Amino acid sequence: MSQAEFRKLIPALRIAIRPRSLRMRNIDGPGGRLKRIAGHVTNLIRDERVEHNFPTLSEARNYAERLIAEAIRHGDKHQPTMDLANFYLQEKQLVHKLFKVLVPRYRNSTVSYTKMYKAPTITNRKPAAIDHPKGILELRNNPLPPLEPRPIPTRNWIHNVLLEEARKDFAAEKKMEKELALQNQIEDQQRDQNDEID
Amino acid sequence: MLDRHDMITRRKHIDIPEFYVGSVMAVTINDPNATGRSSRFVGICIQRMNRGLKSNFTLRNVLDYQGMEIMYEMYCPVISSIETLRLEKRLDPHLLYLRDARPEYSTFPMDMEPELIAEDAPVPINDVKVKMIDGDWDKSWERQELKGIDLSGLTELQKRMALKRKTPDYVQYDLMKEYRSTLPEEDQEDIYREIAPHYPALVASQRKFRRRKLAGDA
Predict the structure, then answer these.
(1) How many CB pairs under 8 A join A and B?
(2) Cα gap B6→B142, rounded to integer Å
(3) Which UniProt keywords are present, listed alphabetically (chain A) (predicted)?
């Protein structure tokens, strides 16, 4: 394994990545592979949520995260970043969306800019067809209806109410015991002092 | 990390100077079979591999019309001294093509004196275009993107084949290839934080070695 080369400071990706890049067979070779990934990144930036085969989207996710990180770091006046955005975003108004909408949205974020879900694989096709695992890739804080169910507040469930009260009782008991012990200690000290004087 | 700890410990015992591919260096090793129990080799650094504790560099020289290369592991305890006689950089990341270049580009006298430059001067870049031998080359150097070769003697066919192998433009846009080949900023900072406590001791030992060397030369 060859050692890392340090030519450019790159911020770490906030997602787990494969140690090797995904092999995507393409008639145009590696150039075609990158173009296909750029297509997925374009769709993601435009629709803010895409559904496709899971491994391909996983790989496209890495590129999308890197693109957004570069845009946040360098801004739109930096020529190499503009060239990158030009390459990955195949519609020109999406370059504006990246720098004007997404960069302010994620500028102060400490988590990843995208989220990845596994989608239902079984589709209405002939039994002999291969069902490729599907995935959904979406940008965080997008305006679309959420995919995850709203978390149910469980504080008012009966067993949680009872447990909370039991916790409070226990804390009060402990506090009383401590105060009693402290009072006893003070009384003992005073008694010892009085004995000394006598 | 254990490797880094061992590298720091070794650097407190030996001064490993600044050098680049293209610098002329002299290495003395402890050789039990040599007269004086040590042997010295002078050569131009044609390759440098940074592999942690196994980091190495290769020196090339032509002695008695015979080209020879020796690969030294920087942190090997057998090495007793490493000196940079001429500190300079070249245009390419390696100089392996010197094997197929005319011998004058790889010949350096074994009793070469160190060439001193100012401490804060920038490292000079030698932009020489090396002339190659007329016969068959070991590798098709014209197809690698090397800037230090004089390619004026190529045939038309060779020139066309060289253009075919040029790296395509889209490679510069491959974000994950770039990311997977480097260490991210946060991990680099972790490593610097790990070795920062050792910096004062290292700088002090370096200064001690250089002072001792100057006193020895004087």
Answers:
(1) 67
(2) 41
(3) Ribonucleoprotein, Ribosomal protein
